[in-house]
Amino acid sequence: KLRDTSERIKTAGRQGRGRSTIATTQEPVKQAPKTPEQVIADKFHDMVSDYNVAIDNFSNVAAFKQKWNGVALSRKERQDGTKTVLINSSRAFEKSEIWCVNFSDKYFAFPGLSVKSNMATYMNLDFEKATRDFKGVFDISSGSSWGTEPCIVRRGGAGFVVERKGKLIFPN
To answer: What beta strand segments (E) does 94-156 contain?
Structure first.
């Protein structure tokens, strides 16, 4: 009886080991390949996420600038009214009012860290300074919290031309 029981235990042990190796050698489930639109959308969401991290913490601004090829811009004075032109800013990227980044031959302009830092100044007198400084670049409004939507720009002449205005939301 003892030998029979011993043999059954050994046999069961070998079968158990065999089953466990089968379970570990299974192929991982493969995901369907992403369409070019999904790849671009994912990259855009990464860029916006990186922007939000940088705008909330100054120590992340340099990494954001480097990763997304950031350029400091400012609104060109005395616009003719037909199109808004943004030119290279004389200020450092970290201190400029408009950050321009690009990927996939598209350019996006975001409000810089200095805009969020100086929010109170931009909100004075019914957003008078914000409306003047960002005319043709961002639509200004108030909401429950700070928020932004980048404007879309294209290279043109000595700078960038705004193709679609963004949004800048100040908290009320």
So the answer is: 98-103, 106-111, 138-143, 147-149, 151-156
Unique residue bearing structure tokens 């200004």: 140
- What is the residue-level pLDDT of the chain in tens, covering all 172 positions? 666 766 666 665 555 444 444 444 455 556 677 787 888 888 889 999 999 999 998 999 999 999 998 999 988 876 666 788 888 899 999 999 999 998 778 899 999 998 888 888 888 888 888 888 888 899 999 888 889 999 999 988 788 988 999 999 988 8
Q: How many CB atoms lie within 10 A of CB 149?
A: 16
Residue 73 CA to chain centroid, in angstroms?
18
- 3-state helix, strand and coil shares in percent for the chain, rounded to the nearest 5: 45, 30, 25
